[in-house]
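Dear colleagues,

As part of the handover before I leave the project, I'm documenting each prediction I ran so the next person doesn't have to rerun anything. This entry is a single chain, and its sequence is reproduced below.
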Amino acid sequence: MKIQTTRDDLLKPLLQISGVVERRQTMPILANVLIATQKDEISITATDLEVELRTKALASCNGETEFTVPAKKLLDICKALPEQAEISADIDEKKVTLRAGRGRYSLGLLAAQDFPSIEPGEAAQQFEVPEKV
């Protein structure tokens, strides 16, 4: 499986969800983000078992899969890259190898099926707030 994107397309969504990633996790999987690939985008999910955030990023993928990678390491790599750097990721069963320019980074994977998901529930009350407020 191969994914191609740019640093800027990946960095913004990672910054959006990085606040919910556990710093001192009780479960190792909570330090990871879940990445699900589709044809022209990837979905990135983070949770601390109380809050779950999901965002999307533009990417070229040659298939559909799900995997988890360490959130802080991925974010640090993206921050260190120059603007508009092309990133390619090769995913196998145990690791993902990121390549950008002359840099090559290897990140360990944890099973996507172990990533906790917060099931949406029905709200007892709903309200609307105008955008300007």
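Residues 7-17 form the longest helix (11 residues). The two ends are 45 Å apart (CA to CA).

All the best with the project,
I.
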